[in-house]
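[job 4471] stage=fold_predict status=RUNNING
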Amino acid sequence: MISVLKINKWAGFTLAVIGFSAQAAQAPQHIDVKQYKKVEDVVVPLPNEVFGALNKLGPVNWKEYVRAEKGTNFSERPRTALLLGNVIADGFIAVQAQDAPAVKDIGQRVLSLAKGIGVGASITPHAKAITEAADKRKWESVRQELDRTQSSVQGA
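[job 4471] inference complete, writing structure tokens
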């Protein structure tokens, strides 16, 4: 049986660790948003920045978080664009999980939605390169192509 004294010691230790962690992870005093990519005054992280943040989470079973359901298709352009963003986010998780079949399925969905909002032509060559690299398990190439895709879409 664990004594109350031991529980209190562990609780105190845990609180101390949390306190030190919170101090170490404080927000910066100033963030210069001019240094970040923007689309119409909205800061948009580069794909490699997203993957960098995901990598900092340590070992995670990313395959557990890859969604298989397709979701609803919309006829309104703004809703289609939001759905496209969700599907792209699923793609980031699939790439992080190194799940080539999921990357391929999500890539097809991205192409379909992108065509629906008029940016399909700028995405098609990138989608092909991404799925080919995923099939070959060249995950660094997939990530680099995602960076190039974002630049093309922003220019479209």
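[job 4471] summary: Strands lie at 38-39, 42-43.
[job 4471] exit 0
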